TrEMBL record:
Family: Belongs to the DoxX family.
Name the UniProt record assigns to this protein: Oxidoreductase
Subcellular location: Cell membrane
Entry-linked Pfam families: DoxX
Primary location recorded for the protein, binned into one broad class: membrane
Keyword Disulfide bond: no
Membrane topology: Multi-pass membrane protein
InterPro entries in the record: DoxX (IPR032808), DoxX-like_oxidoreductase (IPR051907)
Transmembrane regions: 61-78, 90-111
Protein origin, superkingdom: Bacteria
PANTHER family xref list: OXIDOREDUCTASE CATD-RELATED, OXIDOREDUCTASE MHQP-RELATED
Keywords: Cell membrane, Membrane, Transmembrane, Transmembrane helix
């Protein structure tokens, strides 16, 4: 569900987020263009993937959407800082990536929709 929250921050400015324009501006500042379009795509992947993943619905698709955003954040933001999250590295993103891949491979479980 937290992935959906991150998507809502980007898409709608909820939960202290910056919305499409603010997130798009930040993306452009790190040379990801067009910023607003990329903010929309990333926000949509996180929002939809997070909701589907939390519900256990279309788990493989949900995991792919979330995994794409985690790989993207590692490649574009955190990778250059090394592994450890204390240095703004990719440690946490890697753990989340492993978790979504693990659930995609094993299935959502008995309480899934």
């Amino acid at each position: 569900m937290l992935f959906a929250g991150h998507g809502a921050q980007k898409l709608f400015g909820w939960f202290g987020g910056y919305g499409l324009k603010g997130t798009g501006g930040w993306l452009e500042s790190i040379n990801i263009k067009p910023g607003v379009l990329m903010a929309f795509v990333v926000g949509l992947f996180e929002f939809a993937g997070g909701l589907l993943f939390a519900a256990g619905l279309w788990t493989t698709l949900a995991a792919i959407l979330v995994a794409i955003t985690m790989i993207g954040s590692i490649v574009t933001v955190h990778g250059k800082n090394g592994l450890w999250s204390t240095q703004n590295g990719y440690e946490y993103n890697l753990v989340l990536l492993a978790a979504v891949i693990g659930v995609a491979l094993t299935g959502p479980g008995a309480i899934a929709v």
